[in-house]
Design goal:
The structure is a single chain. The protein is of the alpha/beta class. It has one domain (5-161): Rossmann fold (3-Layer(aba) Sandwich). The chain has six helices and five strands. A five-stranded parallel β-sheet has the order 2-1-3-4-5, with helices on both faces. Helix 3 links the parallel strand 3 (60-66) and strand 4. The longest helix has 25 residues, at 137-161. 40% of the residues are buried. The structure holds 5-O-phosphono-beta-D-ribofuranose. Residues 10-11, 13-14, 38, 65-67, 88, 90 line the site of 5-O-phosphono-beta-D-ribofuranose (RP5).
Length: 163
């Protein structure tokens, strides 16, 4: 199946966080491709990957990076498909730097910034699924089931501690 989502990360050291995105996409049976490309260390490779992805039918790009995290913004500047940014807590500032870099895009080129770290990486996968669900009823139905399961898990846990 042709990938619908491209997951990019600035360094292989970001993989433990970005695996959370991959797990969610797998859970929703969404085909994806994933690789490392840095906005500053491999700028030309980054542009090439984004252009090829769009040509090959990728509909959402997820970019995770830490520190002065400009990867999502650079990717968004070369893509028309929606770009979701995951700020990674890999620096001495624990991801606050990456959050500001990702969320504070000047007007014109948006990046949908998620939360810092693994929570943001998971939500990036869910958000991508929500975008794709607009024209894929199977994904929409899987999202509904996912929410129902979250609700029943909370109720089960509540019952356990109730007294
Ligand atoms: C960023 O710098 C990467 O996204 C990573 O989060 C951080 C550190 O990269 P490495 O020095 O571990 O390659 O560009």
């Amino acid at each position: 199946m042709k990938p619908k989502v491209l997951i990019l990360m600035g360094s292989d050291s970001d993989l433990p966080v970005m695996e959370e995105t991959a797990k969610i996409l797998e859970q929703f049976n969404i085909p994806y491709e994933m690789t490392v490309s840095s906005a500053h260390r491999t700028p030309e490779r980054t542009v090439r990957i984004v252009r090829d992805a769009e040509k090959n039918g990728v509909e959402v790009i997820i970019a995770g990076a830490g520190a002065a995290a400009h990867l999502a913004g650079v990717v968004a500047s070369h893509a028309l498909v929606p770009v979701i940014g995951v700020p990674i807590d890999s620096s001495p500032l624990h991801g606050v730097d990456a959050l500001y870099s990702t969320v504070q895009m000047p007007p014109g080129i948006p990046v949908a910034s998620m939360a810092i770290g693994k929570a943001g990486a998971k939500n990036a996968g869910i958000f991508a699924a929500q975008i794709l669900s607009l024209k894929d009823p199977l994904i929409a139905s899987a999202l509904r089931d996912h929410r129902k399961k979250m609700t029943s898990d909370v109720l089960k846990k509540a019952k356990k501690i109730e007294r």
